[in-house]
C-alpha cells in the first residue's frame, strides 16, 4: 500500500504538513513545477559529480571527528560521532567555511524545531539566509569546486535556480542530509555492536559492510513515516480518503512486509531482497541516496578500524526514540586506546 501511494503522485501528493521555515521546497512540489526544479537539482547532484566530491571528503572528515575523542577510550557515539560527521560533510560539500560550522549547526537545529517552535525556526531561517546569500553571490561571480557553485550555475533548458530555490534546497540539505544520516549511523552501530560475530567479520572483510548498510536502512529506517496528502477523493487499503486528507505512510512497516522479505524481523546483511522504500520511490526518490549510503559505509569502516575493541557500555539500556525520524537516543561506548 505504501508503494501504491508512492507510485500514484496524482492521488497522493507530497505536500508538506507544515510550511517549512526555509520556504517552498522540492518535497512539496508537484507536476511540471517539480519536474523543472528536480531537473536543475539533478544536473548539480549527478551521481558522478557527487561521487567525485564525496569520495575525497568522507574519510578525512570521519577521521577528523574521531581525532577529537580517540585518546579518551570512551565516547557517546551519537553526540560524539554520528551527529557531527554527516553535518560536517554537508557543510564541506557546500563550501561553507569551517569557522562558521558551529553557527550553521545551531541554525540547522532550530530549523528542525519548526513544528514546535515556528517563530524560532523562522528567525533562524532569516539569519541563515542573510549568511548564505552573500556566499551565493560570491559563487555566481567566481565559481569554485563545491556544491553551492554547482547549484548556482546549474542550467537546464536555459533556466537556472532562483535564490529562493537555492536557499530552500540548502535549508533542506541539513535535515534531509544530516539529521536522517546521523540516525541511520546510530541505528547501524547499535545493530553491529550488539552482534559481536558480525563486528569481527566486518573488521576482517570490508566487502561485507555494504550489506550492513542496506540491511540497516531496511531494518530500522531513519525515516519511519512520510507525510502525504490526498490530491483528490481516493482510496488506499480499502479506506476512503476525501481530498485534502493528510496521512502518514509507514516506511518502517513496509520495510518489514513478509510478502517481500523473508524473516523480516531478523537483521540479515546477506539477504538478497533490497526493495526497501527508505529513500522513497519514483519522482520523489531521494537525490542524496548515494551520499547517505557512502556516509554510512565510511562511518562503519573508520569507526571499526580506528577504535579497537569498540563496544557498548550497556546495550540493554539503549532507547530508540522518534516517530517520524527514528534512531538511538544515546550510545555510550568504550574502546582500547593504543599505547
List the helices and strands and how they pair.
Blueprint: H1 2-7, E1 12-13, H2 31-44, H3 47-67, E2 74-76, H4 77-82, H5 84-94, H6 101-112, H7 118-141, H8 147-153, E3 155-156, E4 159-160, H9 163-193, H10 196-204, H11 209-219, E5 225-230, E6 234-236, E7 239-241, E8 246-250, H12 251-254, H13 289-306, E9 311-312, E10 320-321, E11 327-328, E12 332-334
Antiparallel strand pairs: 1-5, 2-12, 3-4, 5-8, 6-7, 9-12, 10-11
Helix pairs in contact: 2-8, 3-5, 3-13, 5-9, 6-7, 7-8, 9-11, 9-13, 11-13
What would you say this structure looks like, in words?
With 339 residues, this protein is mainly α. The chain has one domain (28-222, 291-334): Cytochrome p450 (Orthogonal Bundle), CATH 1.10.630.10. The protein is built from 13 helices and 12 strands. A 3-stranded antiparallel β-sheet has the order 1-5-8. The chain has a 3-stranded antiparallel β-sheet with strand order 2-12-9. A two-stranded antiparallel sheet has the order 3-4. The longest helix has 31 residues, at 163-193. Mean pLDDT is 86; it is low at 21-26.
Quick structural summary:
With 339 residues, the protein is mainly alpha-helical.
Amino acid at each position: 500500500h505504501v508503494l501504491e501511494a508512492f507510485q500514484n503522485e496524482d492521488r497522493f501528493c507530497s505536500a508538506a504538513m507544515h510550511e517549512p521555515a526555509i520556504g517552498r521546497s522540492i518535497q512539496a512540489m508537484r507536476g511540471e513545477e517539480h519536474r523543472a526544479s528536480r531537473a536543475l537539482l539533478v544536473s548539480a547532484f549527478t551521481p558522478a559529480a557527487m561521487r567525485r566530491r564525496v569520495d575525497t571528503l568522507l574519510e578525512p572528515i570521519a577521521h577528523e571527528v574521531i581525532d577529537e575523542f580517540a585518546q579518551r577510550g570512551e565516547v557517546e557515539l551519537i553526540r560524539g560521532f554520528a551527529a557531527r560527521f554527516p553535518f560536517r560533510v554537508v557543510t564541506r560539500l557546500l563550501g561553507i567555511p569551517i569557522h562558521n560550522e558551529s553557527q550553521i549547526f545551531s541554525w540547522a537545529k532550530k530549523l528542525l524545531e519548526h513544528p514546535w517552535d515556528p517563530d524560532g525556526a523562522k528567525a533562524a531561517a532569516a539569519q541563515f539566509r542573510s549568511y548564505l546569500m552573500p556566499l551565493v553571490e560570491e559563487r555566481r561571480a567566481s565559481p569554485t569546486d563545491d556544491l553551492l557553485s554547482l547549484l548556482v550555475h546549474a542550467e537546464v533548458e536555459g533556466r537556472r535556480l532562483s535564490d529562493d530555490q537555492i536557499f530552500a534546497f540548502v535549508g533542506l540539505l541539513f535535515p534531509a542530509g544530516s539529521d536522517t544520516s546521523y540516525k541511520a549511523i546510530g541505528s547501524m552501530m547499535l545493530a553491529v555492536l550488539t552482534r559481536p560475530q558480525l563486528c569481527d567479520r566486518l573488521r576482517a572483510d570490508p566487502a561485507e559492510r555494504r550489506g550492513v548498510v542496506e540491511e540497516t536502512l531496511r531494518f530500522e529506517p531513519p525515516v519511519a513515516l512520510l507525510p502525504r496528502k490526498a490530491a483528490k477523493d481516493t482510496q488506499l487499503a480499502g479506506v476512503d480518503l476525501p481530498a485534502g486528507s493528510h496521512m502518514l505512510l509507514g516506511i518502517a512497516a513496509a520495510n518489514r512486509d513478509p510478502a517481500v522479505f523473508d524473516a523480516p524481523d531478523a537483521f540479515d546483511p546477506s539477504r538478497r531482497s533490497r526493495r526497501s522504500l527508505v529513500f522513497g520511490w519514483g519522482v520523489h526518490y531521494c537525490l542524496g541516496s548515494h551520499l547517505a549510503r557512502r556516509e554510512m559505509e565510511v562511518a562503519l569502516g573508520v569507526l571499526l578500524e580506528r577504535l579497537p575493541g569498540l563496544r557498548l557500555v550497556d546495550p540493554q539500556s539503549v532507547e530508540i526514540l522518534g516517530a517520524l525520524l527514528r534512531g538511538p537516543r544515546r550510545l555510550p561506548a568504550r574502546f582500547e586506546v593504543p599505547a
